[in-house]
Write a sequence for this structure.
């Protein structure tokens, strides 16, 4: 997975972000000021920066100007919703922009998109005897191919990308079926049963009481 620098001066927000990054398998570093972020980037390999705009010392826009030669993907995180600020961020090279307050699942999804765009996401995922190759949309168990429907694979990818996080049935529908899907949430239960059976993941895909499901993986 990726190593992500979280530059956020509000510690509760920083802690929430990094806790969830760890849950899905990323590593991270923290910085709380603009100068601290620049110094960290001089010392560590970083695949992605989550960068608050309003920072002590140097604001996020100034930090972006100074780190531009490093060509590291940046997602700006800010409470500022003005169009001019968003445009300035993109003109400085930001890959994405998310407004506070935000849902952590949305942030994780945006991170995945930016990492894929910059070829930083892993090509495969391995757990127990199951190997998933994302680009080829192939799944093997004990090195034997397993046939999944397109929807089963999309649901599996959502679970993997958000592993160790409890996802409601509604959120799984939204992420795997699409925002405009009008079907019943019970279809999620049917597909989960199929994935458990085909992958032997009866103990990996946990049922979260009165909510949905969680793929439980050691990180």
């Amino acid at each position: 997975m990726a190593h992500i620098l979280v530059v956020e001066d509000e510690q509760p927000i920083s802690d929430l972000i990094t806790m969830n990054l760890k849950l899905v398998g990323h590593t991270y570093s923290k910085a709380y000021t603009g100068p601290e972020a620049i110094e960290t980037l001089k010392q560590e390999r970083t695949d992605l920066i989550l960068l608050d705009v309003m920072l002590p010392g140097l604001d996020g826009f100034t930090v972006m100007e100074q780190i531009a030669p490093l060509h590291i993907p940046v997602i700006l995180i800010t409470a500022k919703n003005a169009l001019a600020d968003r445009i300035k961020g993109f003109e400085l090279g930001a890959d994405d922009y998310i407004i506070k307050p935000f849902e952590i699942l949305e942030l994780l999804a945006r991170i995945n998109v930016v990492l894929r765009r910059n070829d930083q996401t892993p090509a495969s995922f391995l757990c127990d005897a199951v190997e998933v190759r994302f680009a080829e949309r192939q799944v093997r168990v004990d090195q034997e191919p397993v046939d999944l429907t397109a929807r089963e694979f999309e649901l599996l990818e959502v679970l993997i990308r958000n592993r160790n996080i409890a996802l409601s049935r509604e959120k799984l529908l939204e992420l795997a079926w699409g925002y405009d899907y009008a079907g019943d949430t019970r279809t999620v239960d049917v597909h989960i049963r199929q994935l458990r059976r085909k992958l032997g993941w009866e103990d990996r895909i946990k049922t979260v009481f009165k909510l949905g499901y969680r793929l439980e993986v050691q990180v």
In short: The CA atoms of residues 2 and 26 lie 5 Å apart. Residues 124-215 form a domain with the Arc Repressor Mutant, subunit A fold (CATH 1.10.10.10).
